[in-house]
Amino acid sequence: MTFSWEDEYDERQAQSKMKRLMKQENERQRSSARKEYSQSVRSLVKFVRNKDPRWANIKARQEKETQERDLKLKQEAAQRRKEKDEKIRQEMERLDKINLYEDDIALNQVFFSDNTNADDLYCEVCDIEFDNVSMKEKHLKSRKHKDNLEILKRLMKQQDEEVIKNKDDNDNDLKKINENTDDNDNL
Fold first, then answer.
1. Percent of the chain scored above 70 by pLDDT?
2. pTM for this predicted structure
């Protein structure tokens, strides 16, 4: 609705200088008429809602749906929390296993590395040489370095397992040889 009937002035009869002022005043009048009209419609709707029995049913249904939705969201959040806690627990177990091998790696670095200045700026894991210490420190915190370190840990773990397996096989072979020599000596 334009609310043009609320205009106080007729702009068609005005001179050019006054026309702009008349437009502004008419727009103020229209704006206040729109506000009054909107307010009266809102109050009518509110009155009808209070008196209409269907509205109470609609309101009750909306509240029930809201409660069901809230309950469902809470259950989903609880399920997500459980899954997250389980993932964290599994990750912690995995990290505990890795920490054992990290200790071995740290000991190997302490006992088998040369402490020269050139080695201070070299990353053996990634095979990269750096210009200064700050670049190396940034690199050590980077995702690429951590991924390479993880790969190296897995490789070392596999090698350790192979060494242990080979040692057990060699021990068994030595026992057989000793048994055979003992049998030959007894003859």
1. 78
2. 0.31
